[in-house]
Design a protein that fits this description.
heterodimer, A: alpha+beta, paralog of FGE (formylglycine-generating enzyme), 2 domains, 5-stranded antiparallel β-sheet, 4-stranded antiparallel β-sheet, 18% helix, globular, B: mainly beta, 8-stranded mixed β-sheet, 2 helices, 16 strands
């Protein structure tokens, strides 16, 4: 009877001797830090001045979320906007390595004459499931002559709408069920924020319309104001659709019990943060027209009298989208009541306005105007 | 015989794999009949496609390496690797020259697992070699989707790109025409073939038919309007175990206020 000899395996892993293997392992080790820089750019934002005016003109009314998955932040960081010699330091087998991005890509003249640290990718064939992303190239200072190209995806843009039953709109009598629907067997992802001028510029660059981009960098974080047809086209270009009114209601009306996906009664909360509007500052302002807004009120819903803020995250709804009430008027598709295609609740109206209530919609004539700037966002349904 | 196995075990070597195999993220074209760890002995002297390995190159073109094997018979066996477009068929390249060949093989077996492939072969010189291919992307099924982005749901936070392959786009890589059915669902609610809706250039739309997945078509078409498909409303909010057939219970769909649902077979339209 032959007995197999016990395998002699050194428990201590050794540093790879093949340079290619060492390089790829250093990159693998550094990927969590690289992803942190990409997805949580705001954490790296310097307290002092930035030195990349072609990419970012920062204003204190712009929240940190704007810098998450933001290619201009990536460009600014690597071209030395924060530090003279930017790198991500990692330790591998007790030795320090410094990973950095390479300026391997052609300039985008609409932005600057600088070589780019990323290349815009838009799906032009259907072999890859990802619709768009940013191609970057990484190198390791201590391992010269090698590089790794990778595609960073936009994991910051949208968030999942859980599968359950939802209510749409308002009902005249609260005892009525009104329009109820469900999204079981559907994977729906909704943009967390309005589509920005920064994103619109990218669309224009990719579709050879660089001459019409928004040039004022201070306005890049602001919502893009375009006509309804362009809003639809923008969303379709990225494999998405203009948000529907019933999806907006679903994303903003907090379910009574998150665990009960098919409740006996689907309630319609009047605000994203409290079921009964009368108990909120909006309700108090309806009774008292002289109500003095507090900073907290303006974080929940930017209404008339609040200071402008972009990418504020304090208005997050139960599933993670922002700007449920207040902020900007927002356009929707509405296949239930096609004429109700505009959320009027916005910074244009006094806090006591009756527009400030979930499920209350108006009609938009599809064209932008100075008096009524209309923001938009997209959603995507993914087939498994 | 025992001596042979001990001998070959001692000589077992890790064979050189192409560098770009560290970018493999999926396995396709798996042989219909060969089982994991089965020594491949027939049909003798024939070329067989064992599997293909998919990766994405620097031009963001999805390509695959077809791994062929000429089963030993009168002559020794040969492993052949050929790089082609993802949408091309490996079998069309079975008899063409490969980019890499390993000849003089006496026997071969392989096993496909969740995280990769282990391929072992013994050469005519009795030298045993292993090829280990690790998948880059773990085929994880995400359990909790709360807070997840569409990008991460569809692929990964990042995709490592292999060096350029310089392959020309495949002639098979054409978008489907607007209006063509990209997800076929029959009257018994069976999905007839995998979704092709990723081949729609400008999105897709669904015509609800009371099944958990309705048939889908390429293009943009609003729903709920006059003479348009009805919009999907769902089949669970009713909290009923009834089957949803357009003629008997059309609550799975809706039309804009003022219009009503009419059925064309199982499909719901608004009139």
């Amino acid at each position: 009877m032959l007995r197999s000899r016990p395998e002699i395996v050194s428990k201590k892993e050794r540093i790879p001797v093949i340079p290619e293997k060492l390089f790829s392992q250093v990159i693998e080790t550094g990927m969590p830090a690289i992803l942190r820089l990409w997805e949580e750019g705001d954490r790296y934002f310097p307290k002092g001045a930035l030195f990349c005016d072609d990419e970012i003109i920062h204003h204190k009314n712009v929240g940190g979320s704007y810098y998450q998955c933001n290619p201009h932040f990536w460009q600014c960081f690597w071209q030395g906007g924060f530090a003279k010699y930017p790198s991500i330091e990692i330790e591998f087998f007790g030795k320090k390595y410094h990973i950095s991005a390479k300026a391997s890509f052609d300039p985008i003249p609409a932005y600057s004459t600088q070589p780019r640290f990323y290349h815009l990718y838009k799906k032009n064939n259907f072999s890859l499931n990802t619709d768009y992303g940013y191609v970057v190239e990484l190198e390791v200072k201590e391992l010269p002559g090698k590089s790794q190209v990778l595609l960073l995806t936009d994991t910051c843009r949208d968030t999942y709408l859980p599968q359950r039953s939802y209510a749409y709109g308002k009902v005249a009598d609260k005892r009525e069920d009104g329009f109820i629907w469900d999204n079981f067997d559907r994977n729906i992802f909704i943009d967390k924020f309005y589509v920005t001028n920064r994103q619109l510029n990218e669309w224009k660059v990719l579709t050879n319309r660089s001459d019409s981009i928004e040039k004022d960098r201070a306005k890049w974080p602001h919502p893009a104001m375009i006509n309804l047809k362009d809003q639809r086209d923008y969303c379709v270009y990225y494999g998405k659709r203009l948000l529907e009114a019933k999806l907006f209601d679903a994303a903003t009306m907090t379910p009574t019990d998150l665990k009960e996906t098919l409740p006996t009664k689907v309630y319609r909360p009047e605000t994203p943060w409290q079921r009964d509007l009368s108990k909120t500052f909006l309700g108090i302002a309806r009774i008292n027209p002289d109500y003095q807004l507090t900073p907290l009120d303006c974080q929940l819903a930017e209404v008339q009298g609040c200071n402008e803020k972009y990418f504020s995250t304090d208005s997050a709804t139960w599933m993670g989208v922002h700007f449920g009430l207040g902020f900007y008027p927002e356009s929707f598709e509405n296949y239930i009541e096609p004429k109700k295609n505009l959320k009027m609740s916005s910074r244009l109206f006094h806090p006591g306005s009756e527009w400030h209530e979930l499920g209350v919609l108006s009609n938009w004539t599809e064209e932008q105007s100075k008096n009524l700037p209309v923001a938009f966002r997209c959603y995507e349904e993914v087939i498994e | 015989m025992i001596f042979f196995y001990i001998f070959s075990f001692i000589l077992s070597l890790q064979a050189d794999v192409p560098n770009h195999w560290s970018y493999i993220y999926e396995i396709h074209d798996r042989h219909e009949f060969y089982q994991n760890d089965e020594i491949i002995v027939k049909p003798k002297d024939s070329w067989q496609t064992l599997f293909s390995l998919t990766y994405i190159d620097r031009d963001i073109t999805a390509v695959k390496d077809c791994v062929f094997f000429k089963v030993p018979g009168v002559d020794s066996g040969t492993i052949k690797i050929k790089t082609i477009n993802l949408n091309d068929k490996c079998d069309d390249y079975l008899l063409k020259n490969g980019e890499k060949e390993i000849a003089a093989i006496k026997s071969l077996k392989y096993s496909i697992k969740e995280n990769g492939i282990e391929l072992t072969f013994i050469k005519d010189s009795n030298k045993k070699e292993n090829l280990t291919i690790q998948l880059n992307k773990k085929n994880k099924k995400l359990q909790n989707l709360f807070g997840l982005s569409s990008a991460e749901y569809k692929s990964a936070k990042f995709i490592l790109l292999a060096p350029k392959t310089n392959l020309k786009p495949s002639s098979r890589e054409t978008y489907l025409k607007v209006g063509s059915e990209c997800l076929e669902v029959n009257d018994d609610c069976e999905i007839k073939s995998p979704s092709q809706c990723h081949r729609c250039e400008k999105g897709w739309y669904e015509i609800p038919n009371g099944c958990s997945h309705g048939p889908k078509y390429c293009g943009q078409l609003s729903c709920g309007g006059k003479n348009q498909p009805a919009c999907r409303r769902g089949m669970k909010w009713q909290k009923s175990n009834d089957e949803f057939d357009c003629r008997t219970n059309s609550t799975f769909a809706y039309c804009s206020r003022g219009l009503s649902i009419q059925c064309e077979g199982r499909k719901a339209y608004c009139r």
